[in-house]
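Sequence only, no structure available. Ideas?
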Amino acid sequence: MLHLLRHAPQDASRFASSLRVMGPRQGLLLLEDGVYSLLPRTTALSALQLLPASVRLYALEADVVARGLPMDDVPKRVKLIDYPTFVRLCTEYDKVLSW
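Reply:
I predicted one. Tokens follow.
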């Protein structure tokens, strides 16, 4: 399953719920305000880093840039992707769930 997290981590219920149901070998794509989860030294980033290594983390690069997040601070585990890759990911996972 690919989880799409569109909302800022300050929307605690969606952020926490999406992480709580995350299973092994699933993916989490941060887009729109969800990329704020990547801000350095935040509880949201700490929570993302606690996910099992089998969970793949992605972020839409255009949204990271549009929100002025420092590219150098994006964790190495997070793969920055473009729109064509976003579409490809949605077809590679058997289900897509938007938060």
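The chain has one domain: 2-98.
Hope that gets you unstuck.
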